[in-house]
Amino acid sequence: MNKYVFMLLAGLVVSLCSFAQDTPGTIIAVGDVHGDHQQFVKVLETTGLIDSKQRWIGGATHLVQLGDLPDRGPDTRKTMDLLMKLEASASKDGGSVTVLIGNHDMMNVMDDLRYVHPGEYKAFKSRNSKTLRSNYYKQVVAYLTETLPKDERPSFDRKWRKEWEAKHPLGYVEHRIAWAPTGTYGEWVMERPAVAIVGDSLFVHGGISPEYATMSVEEMNTAVHEAMAAGYANADDSILYDADGPLWFRGWSQGAETPENDAALTSVLDAFGVARMVVAHTPVLPVVFPRYDNKVFMVDVGLAGHYGHGFSALKIEGEQLSAMVGGQWFELPSAMNTLTLADYLEEVRDVSANPGRVERYLSALEASEPESAQAAPQAQPTN
To answer: What radius of gyration, in Å, describes the C-alpha atoms of the chain?
Structure first.
């Protein structure tokens, strides 16, 4: 990770709205994109939100994208440009678009670039890239020369510069300017919520842990925005990297469905006055699926090629919940029907992106204790 970046960049536009909204008509929720723009567009087209020219045709539908637009894949810039356009066009048509901050969105703004795909930098390459990188190199050399003791300074020879340029490919400087808090994409991310309530559903990238249930939606969003504004140097001890914080918490996605955990989850939902929590961040199956007797819906289906091109999205229409899987709509278990999780997974298995993974989960489900004590699912390796 580059620790010298853009010392002169400063400033911030922060939205402190509560992001709680009145009961909507139809909600479509989509999980992590991770730079796979083509797959994301395919989901939006299949769910009826955009046409073949990527124009909004969703009418009054409310799209909620739960964060993690960047990293792992090369085309985040295209996805962000599209979402910015759809925010405006959906609003004109009576609809709305809410994009949440995920841990990877936050990391890119904070210059935590561990998972950036090389194609992300290439997407920003321009005719001025060599000049910009050369100027940035000179700034880095000047900064290190001024701040480091002589015996700790790099050699700054040809070999060192070649290694430095390999870590800072053409387009890197433009990428970092655009993702800075004052840049086109960084500023846009800083104006997004980390948590949103739409109707009777709470949407959050990771999850709301019991430790954060005493905070309001507005307080959590403010804490995230303020911590991002404070910069990376102070981030480790903030809400941004807290394993129990809204950007990282996996408890409701991975914790065993014991009576104790169920009671804790119910208390969290009651604290926010919602019927369910919709989370992303933890890819387990290539389809949307519920946990904790439908109190939690997981929508990170591994959409990106890095995770196997899962293809699924959640639809909420009042008490009726359904999932798009493989281009078809399937009813989800809810208080309105007697469908079980096993019934649903059996229905979607053969049209899912990875039938084998669904089958293995079904087998584990059948072999486990009663659903109230269901074992924690195994997620794909992710951060």
So the answer is: 22
Q: Is the pLDDT of residue 5 over 90?
A: no
Which of 186, 125, 138, 197 is CA-nearest to residue 164?
138
Separation CA 74–CA 70 (nearest Å): 8
Q: Are 330 and 322 in contact (CB under 8 A)?
A: yes
Going by C-alpha positions, the residue among 264, 216, 245 that lies closest to residue 67 is 245
In angstroms, the CA 316 to CA 29 distance is: 8
262-294 pLDDT, tens per residue? 999 999 999 999 999 999 999 999 999 999 999
Instruction: Specify the length of the chain in residues.
Output: 383
Bridge-partner residues for 204, per DSSP?
Answer: 195, 279
Q: Read off the tokens for 20.
A: 């709680």
Summarised one tens digit per residue, pLDDT across range 336-349 is: 677 888 999 999 99
Q: Residue 42 and residue 40: Cα distance in Å, rounded?
A: 5
CATH class of 20-110+183-373: alpha beta
Our measurement of the distance from residue 237's CA atom to the centroid of its chain's CA atoms, rounded to an integer in Å, reads 21
Domains of the chain by residue range: 20-110+183-373, 126-170
The candidate with the shortest Cα–Cα distance to 97, out of 79, 110, 109, is 79
Alpha carbon 87 to chain centroid, angstroms? 17
